[in-house]
Structures are given as C-alpha cells and as structure tokens.
Design a protein that fits this description.
Layout lengths: L2 E5 L2 E3 L5 E8 L7 E7 L6 E7 L4 E3 L7 E6 L4 E6 L8 E8 L7 E2 L3 E5 L2
Parallel strand pairs: 2-11
Antiparallel strand pairs: 1-3, 3-8, 4-5, 4-9, 5-6, 7-8, 9-10, 9-11
C-alpha cells in the first residue's frame, strides 16, 4: 500500500521561504510523476509543480521562478522549495504520485501553509 506524508508547512511572512517534504512509503517500484498541488480557501485545487522520473519539471505560472520541485528516486522523497512567498500562496499543500503515467492515484493528507504578516 502506497502512502504519502507531507511535512514542513507553517506560518511564514510575505517574501519568506518554506520547504515542504513528502515521504512515500509502501515501496512503490516505480513512480512516474511526483507533484505538489494546493487548495486555497474558496478556490479550486491547483497543481503547482510536478516532476517526472527522469527529471523534466513543470510549474504553474503563478509560481514559476519562485518554487522549485525536486525528487530523490532512491529515497522516494519529493520536496518543494518555496521562495518569495505571497499571501496568495496560503493554502493546504498536497503531495501526489502517479505510478501509471496517467492521473495521480495517490495523495497525502496535506500540510497547511500560511503566508501572512
């Protein structure tokens, strides 16, 4: 059974930085794509970053240039480095994984990120 657990959320001031981590358990043989999505109050869920097994990554325009996603295939972990955070970044952030080269099948419980002065 594959399980994802996020950590690193918290309160940060506008312009500050935060690093989220996700640990994947259950010994999945191969994870095609790892991603981070977020859902702000009253807003739709948004995929903010994703990275494939071989490295190519994608970012939502709203975070391009400020967020960096990285994965360690050996350790089955994925991180999201968030810099220059804005109040609009306040949301619950979820780690997700795709094992079948399709839509994400596994999701974590989420970690709260609050950007406020």
């Amino acid at each position: 059974q594959v399980q994802l657990l996020e950590s690193g959320g918290g309160l940060v001031q506008p312009g500050g930085s935060l690093r989220l981590s996700c640990t994947i358990s259950g010994n999945p043989f191969n994870i095609v794509t790892m991603g981070w999505s977020r859902q702000a109050p009253g807003k739709q869920r948004e995929l903010v970053a994703s990275v494939t097994r071989t490295g190519p990554s994608h970012y939502a325009e709203s975070v391009e240039g400020r967020f960096t996603i990285a994965r360690d295939n050996a350790k089955n972990t994925v991180t999201l480095q968030m810099d220059s955070l804005k109040p609009e970044g306040t949301a619950v952030y979820y780690c997700c994984a795709d094992l079948r080269n399709g839509r994400f099948q596994y999701w974590g419980q989420g970690t709260q990120v609050t950007v406020s002065s």
